[in-house]
From TrEMBL:
<protein>
    <recommendedName>
        <fullName>Ferredoxin</fullName>
    </recommendedName>
</protein>
<feature type="region of interest" description="Disordered">
    <location>
        <begin position="1"/>
        <end position="21"/>
    </location>
</feature>
Length: 111
């Protein structure tokens, strides 16, 4: 394949309607996956607040509202592994599970 014609993803430059449809869907996806249903949960151990969503009992989405290395003592302890590869703080996970049990954080799909 000629490198000058290859693109990682189509850009739809010849189809403004398609460009707008993709842009609209991207906005909707961002809302659905990154913003919708996120609720603040405070770690009961250190007080760090994150945004969390439970799509099911097995799936949890977490967005840190501050740098975890400066706001979470568990993260600050271990700098040997990149943050993106670490499991979340066990104390935070426990706080999220507690929020679910207390009905503070809703599980969207209970099946």
């Amino acid at each position: 394949m000629d490198a000058s014609t290859w693109a990682k993803a189509p850009d739809f430059t010849g189809s403004p309607e398609r460009v707008e449809a993709v842009r609209t869907q991207t906005v909707a996806d961002k809302q659905n996956y990154l913003e919708s249903g996120m609720q603040p949960v405070e770690c009961r151990a250190c007080g760090t607040t994150v945004l969390a969503r439970k799509n099911s009992f097995n799936q949890t989405s977490i967005q840190w509202t501050a740098d975890p290395a400066t706001s979470c003592t568990e993260y600050a302890k271990d700098e040997t592994q990149p943050r993106s590869l670490r499991e979340t703080c066990p104390r935070l996970r426990s706080s999220i599970e507690h929020a679910v049990m207390e009905g503070i954080l809703e599980v969207r799909d209970r099946d």
